[in-house]
Design a protein that fits this description.
By secondary structure, this protein is an alpha/beta fold. The chain has a single domain, classed as 3-Layer(aba) Sandwich (Rossmann fold). 38% of the residues lie in helices and 18% in strands. The chain has eight helices and seven strands, in the order βαββαβαβααβαααβ. The protein has a seven-stranded parallel β-sheet with strand order 3-2-1-4-5-6-7, sandwiched between helices. Strand 1, helix 1 and strand 2 form a beta-alpha-beta unit. Helix 1 crosses helix 8 and helix 2 packs parallel to helix 3. The N and C termini lie far apart (53 Å).
């Protein structure tokens, strides 16, 4: 029986890396994309790691070509690459705005478009969405575009028996916060605002992705799973 295959964008750290390791441990052949020092990712040796800018159509083309050569076909496409540029309206310039939409929206759209010939019946696509609220209008708009996009694609691809879903992480302790200049002390303090009492770990999101791409979720499409420790729950009288 042929091993299942997975392509994960933004897979060299945080949520993407944790998902790559989890799927690999469950017998998937995995390829990830990323930027920067790819050798430092520390992934298992048989996970293919390639450099690609999620906002560059040229890089996306190259990544899909590599996936075709290395994996042959795709059972799973995890569209996890994203960028955060928080800031108020007054301080958001054109470059920051374009970066948010080029990577978070355009990059995801065209990665799926170009990967579509590799996705057969029974394949699964998962978007990482997450919250944009509180991070500025441009960030909220870029993240907000992904859920209607995911649902439209779920309907469009349903006749091909390709399922499309999303995960929305809450506050998750990933290297992204350090890159934004947020200290570990501040990240740890967020636990006070989370109903379940702790900041999420990348493995929490990886488990949700693994469920969505599994046979156990074979009748689920067009849905978003919030993995937030209870953030967003509002009590009603």
């Amino acid at each position: 029986m042929a091993l299942k295959t997975a392509l994960i964008t933004g897979g060299t750290s945080g949520i993407g890396k944790s998902t790559a390791e989890l799927l690999h441990s469950r017998g998937y052949r995995v390829m990830v994309t990323g930027r920067g020092d790819l050798a430092a990712a520390g992934l298992p040796a048989d996970i293919a790691v390639i450099e690609a800018d999620a906002g560059s159509l040229t890089d996306i083309d190259a990544a899909i070509d590599r996936a075709r050569q290395y994996l042959g076909h795709l059972d799973v496409l995890f569209l996890n690459a994203g960028v955060s540029r928080p800031g108020p309206l007054e301080s958001t310039d054109e470059a920051a705005f374009d970066s948010l939409f080029d990577i978070n929206v355009k990059g995801n759209f065209f990665t799926l478009q170009k990967a579509l010939p590799l996705l057969g019946e029974g394949a699964s696509v998962v978007f990482t969405v997450g919250a944009g609220e509180g991070l500025g209008a441009a960030m909220t708009a870029a993240k907000g575009a992904l859920l209607p996009l995911m649902r439209a694609l779920a309907l469009e691809l349903a006749p091909r028996r390709i399922r499309v879903n999303a995960v929305s992480p809450g506050l998750v302790d990933t290297p992204a916060y350090a890159k934004m200049g947020i200290s570990q002390e501040i990240v740890d303090s967020w636990a006070r605002e989370i109903p379940l009492g702790r900041v999420g770990a990348p493995a929490d999101i990886a488990e949700a992705v693994a469920f969505l791409v599994s046979d156990a979720a074979g009748h689920i499409t067009g849905n978003n799973i919030a993995v937030s420790g209870g953030i967003g729950i509002h009590s009603r009288p």
